[in-house]
Design goal:
The protein is α/β, with parallel strands linked by helices. Helices cover 36% and strands 18% of the residues. A 5-stranded mixed β-sheet has the order 8-7-6-11-12, with helices on both faces. Strands 2-3-4 form a 3-stranded antiparallel β-sheet. A two-stranded parallel ribbon has the order 1-5.
């Protein structure tokens, strides 16, 4: 199951989802298994989205990449050596929770979720009906571009992939994000870490959930090129 929000991937628990009040510590895996009598794996929807990008999208030939998604919230996923990064406690790659310093009192600082998302910018995911002031577009684009540059400098992936209508090639943020990214990325990796558009559709998290199941059913060594190809083939 691909689910939004803060997911404890080791226990299959939805810890919280800031866009829906009242969501707290929902044992999704246990509920599904009890209802269906079928084993279940619960993964963050952006991690599942990244799996689809890896098997059939912009990351198809890559082993190391970062996905940044600007949709209703700010989502992210990291794949290193052909394997999703989950962290020691199952909470890694929550870039949307990164705090952005400002000249306001510390108590008023906001996260990327609150500053760079369709919800925060009060826009729809339909480009034909999207209206965003140049000022808001620049502020959001600069924040996203610097976040992408920081992550690229930190992890040195093969590419950073951006998903969501706001960052499509014709979207209002793309040019600002790209120029900011190139301005602040570490010079030594500027040419080698590509900034790419997502090449998969809106329901790719659901598709990626099937890939996640295959990984559980047919565990492989992701460092093996042959076995990485086998995962893609499945």
């Amino acid at each position: 199951m691909a689910a939004p929000g803060i997911i404890h991937s080791k226990t299959g628990t939805l810890i919280r989802y800031d866009l829906i009040d009242g969501i707290k510590n929902i044992p999704l895996r246990d509920l599904v298994e009890e209802h269906t009598q079928i084993s279940c794996v619960v993964e963050n929807n952006m991690s599942c989205y990244a799996l689809t990008e890896w098997t059939s999208g912009a990351a198809r030939q890559l082993s190391d990449f970062i996905l940044l998604s600007v949709r209703s919230g700010f989502g992210s996923a990291i794949m290193l050596g052909g394997k999703l990064l989950n962290g020691s406690h199952g909470f890694s790659t929550e870039a949307g929770s990164s705090i952005v310093p400002s000249n306001k009192p510390v108590s008023q600082w906001k996260s990327l979720h609150q500053l760079v998302s369709e919800t925060a910018l009060e826009v729809s995911s339909d480009l034909s009906n999207m209206t965003l002031s140049p000022k808001k577009a620049r502020e959001a684009g600069v924040l996203l571009g610097t976040e992408a540059a920081s992550l690229a400098s930190l992890l040195d992936p093969e590419a950073i992939i951006l998903a969501g209508a706001l960052v499509e090639e014709e979207g209002p943020l793309w040019d600002i994000v790209e120029s900011t990214y190139r301005k602040f990325i570490m010079p030594e990796v500027n040419e080698s870490v590509r900034l790419l558009h997502s090449q998969v559709g809106s329901f790719s998290a659901a598709v990626g959930a099937t890939q996640r199941c295959f990984q559980e059913l047919f565990p492989t060594n992701p460092n093996s090129d042959q076995e990485s190809k086998l995962i893609r083939a499945k």
